[in-house]
Request: fold
Amino acid sequence: MQRSKSVFLECLGFVWALPVTMLGVLAIIGAGGWRGVTRLPSPPWRACLVFELRNPWFWPMRFVGMDLGAVIIVRRINGVMGIILEHELVHKMQCWILGPIMLVAYPLASFWAWVRYNEPYRMNWFERQARKETGEES
Reply:
């Protein structure tokens, strides 16, 4: 019973985050290329596509990973890929909870962090939560 409830909630989250996932697909198409979908162990990564950018110069910002729904876009950086993917998985789960609201909530959290701390990325609630969940900070 617990397993079927978990699968149901995961499917519900996937559908709820579908508009954000479609933006992720458009971002991959617009990026002009990727090295392919990374294969990951099933349970925590179910219904998740991971693309490694071939042309990271396309992105206007310097990032190593980005989550858009069920699409995770990464830039490989010498052996830290696992940490990046774990961090982005937390964002995927945040997106599956908030769905399209995430497209507004994340920038608002960045704005609030900028106003309050002058640190729009580092002090963004979503980023702090992802770092906490992955053990990057306590």
Remarks:
- The beta strands are 34-37, 49-53, 65-68, 71-74.
